[in-house]
Structures are given as structure tokens and as C-alpha cells.
Design a protein that fits this description.
The protein is 37% helix and 27% strand. By secondary structure, it is of the alpha/beta class. The strands form 2 sheets. Strands 6-7-8-3-9-10 form a 6-stranded mixed beta sheet, sandwiched between helices. The longest helix is centred in the C-terminal third of the chain and has 16 residues, at 169-184. It holds the Pfam family ABC_tran.
Length: 236
């Protein structure tokens, strides 16, 4: 499988505190990959470095064959590397429609109408609430909006950072069904999650981070099939 995202030897931190310690990670074209690990493992820092929000100390980020190491986040978005951040980060005082349209501000503007219709097909509740202020939506609806906004940018790779956080069990089931559908449709997905069992059910490969380093990479069956790995890295 052709590599879409390639991260090699990535080191980064805050001030003098090292957070990422030589991270290597690959996501192939059309592949769904899980990045698992507990709070404080370095997952969000890795996301922010990949997406141009923080600059790395050393190492390389390549996407679609281009070097994006330390690139401005606008250039990252233009390349098609789109993150749906933890906490949704919607604009609460704008309508659902305005939030979605902002997703196409940098990328996907030419096909905004078609992409908007696709978002409404995926999330019919957003169509029903298109004129409603985003801040008045339920938590599950806000997560739908955040994902829909990300899809408006026509991602080549969609990073979902803790998308199931705070959702009811029923909405979590719906969310993971959507992720499986996106993968089956050929979209590359990097799923950053603490929900281990359901994440491993919808991805092709998995990485486990611990203390800023990758401790495991391989098939979900390999991770779940090893009692030692489950106990050491997943606490299950």
C-alpha cells in the first residue's frame, strides 16, 4: 500500500520538556489506522505537530510525497490533511450551516454545494438544524457537525482526535459505524482514541503510544491476541 502520511523520528515538546521521543508512523492511501494510548501519552501533541500547529524539534512529516515538516497549518489544510480536534471546537455563535461552510474556506470551495449535500446526507439531523446556532446542539450533534465540517474540506486524510469522548453508548456505536463507512469509501483515517475495543474493530492497523514513543505497531488481531501487550499498553 502506498504511504500517504509518513512520520519519521519526530521529536517535539514544550519549552525544555520533551513530549515526543522519536515517533515513527505511517498511514497508507485509503487506510484506517488507530493511534491508542492513555492521557499524557503524547497523542494530541503528535496531532498538533502533524497539522502544523506546533513545530517539531527534529524529524520529518511527509504527506502525499511532499515535505510538510514545520509547514504552516494553512499549507497542511491545503494539502488535504484535516483534523477534527478533541473537544469539537465548533463556533457556537454561528449557525450549523455557517460552521459547515467554514470547513471549505481553505480547501474544497469549488465543490462546496455538493460537499454540503453530502454532509447533510451523512448527518440528516444537521440538515434539520442548519439554521440553528451550533452552541445549542447536543454533544452528539456537535460531534456530527465537527466531522461534517472536516469533510467539507475534502480531506485526503481525516484525523479524528478522541471523537467518542463524552458521547452516549448509542452515539458511540453510530460514530464508529460512520468511521467504518468512511474507510470503506476509500478515505484514509487516523483515529486517535482511548476507546480501544471499538477502535480496533474499525481499523486496518494500530499504533500504541506510551510516554511519547510508539511501543507497538501492527494488526489489531496481534494487539488483542497478546495478553502481555493488552496488559502493558491498554490496561485490559
Amino acid at each position: 500500500m502506498k504511504a500517504l502520511l509518513e512520520i519519521k523520528g519526530l521529536q517535539a515538546g514544550y519549552g525544555a520538556v520533551e513530549v515526543l521521543r522519536g515517533v515513527d508512523l505511517v498511514v497508507g492511501e485509503g487506510e484506517a489506522v488507530a493511534l491508542l494510548g492513555s492521557n499524557g501519552a503524547g497523542k494530541s501533541t503528535l496531532n498538533n505537530v502533524m497539522c502544523g500547529i506546533f513545530r517539531p524539534w527534529s524529524g520529518r512529516v511527509r504527506f502525499g510525497g511532499a515535505d510538510l515538516t514545520g509547514a504552516h497549518y494553512r499549507e497542511v489544510v491545503k494539502a488535504g490533511l484535516i483534523q477534527v480536534p478533541e473537544g469539537r471546537r465548533i463556533f457556537p455563535d454561528l449557525s450549523v450551516l455557517e460552521n459547515l461552510e467554514l470547513g471549505a474556506f481553505t480547501r474544497g470551495r469549488a465543490r462546496r454545494s455538493a460537499n454540503l449535500e453530502r454532509a447533510f446526507e451523512l448527518f440528516p439531523r444537521l440538515r434539520e438544524r442548519s439554521r440553528q446556532l451550533a452552541g445549542t446542539l447536543s454533544g452528539g450533534e456537535q460531534q456530527m457537525l465537527a466531522i461534517g465540517r472536516g469533510l467539507m474540506a475534502e480531506p485526503r486524510l481525516l484525523i479524528l482526535d478522541e471523537p467518542s469522548l463524552g458521547l452516549s453508548p448509542l452515539l458511540v456505536e453510530e460514530l464508529f459505524a460512520l468511521i467504518r463507512s468512511l474507510r470503506d469509501g476509500g478515505l484514509a483515517v487516523l483515529l486517535v482514541e482511548q476507546n480501544v475495543a471499538q477502535s480496533l474493530d474499525v481499523v486496518d492497523r494500530a499504533y500504541v503510544m506510551e510516554n511519547g514513543a510508539i511501543r507497538f505497531s501492527g494488526l489489531p488481531s496481534e494487539l488483542l491476541g497478546s495478553d502481555e501487550l493488552r496488559r502493558a499498553y491498554l490496561g485490559v
